[in-house]
Amino acid sequence: MSDLISIKGGREGLRLRLDDTADWQVLIEALKQQITQNSGFFAGARLTLEIGDRAINDAQMSTLLDLIQHHGVQIEALGATARESRSAARASGVVARPLPRYAEPTGPVQASESDGMLVTRTVRSGQVLRHHGHITLIGDVNPGGELIAGGSVVVWGRLRGLVHAGALGNVEAVVCALELRPTQLRIAEQITRAPEGAGKLGPETARIEDGQIVVEPWEGPKRG
Known about the structure:
single chain; Alpha-Beta Plaits; 2 domains; Pectate Lyase C-like
């Protein structure tokens, strides 16, 4: 992500944090660039936007909403310390939440893909599991379900929905599953699908090699 923008995930969903000291126009351009470049990750996302100590007016709030919603992203809440910012959010129909003042350093801390998410459940049709780091799922992904990760994806079960690893541009990300039969498999910008009529071949892993996705047996560490 840009030095002016960071993204974190947790039980309450995604949080997009904007630098509260940068020039407004520079920040807006950086936000536009990040969402556009990582459209595969953000499309359909619902998130909390945190602007720290920055005070924004109604027009600036409208600019934020127009930019983000134009790219298929919904703001569920605005986190801000300034009353003016929270008032602008409420006037736009957005839930406003007070934030503690940002501790030093004032700029956002960059999200690390090592921040993994462990989930134990079945991802059913119409459900989306989205995280900025790695995702480990103990369960199945049914057709119509989606996993979208900034890092790698490991499914201890059947993966039969859509999966997008490296959705923030990480070409080193991998996808592993006990049964890898996705309707669509993406790693960074590369896309492939499961072969027609493929049978159960056992655990497999997918990665990018020479600019395309390759799928191989998922083998444990070899003993010497």
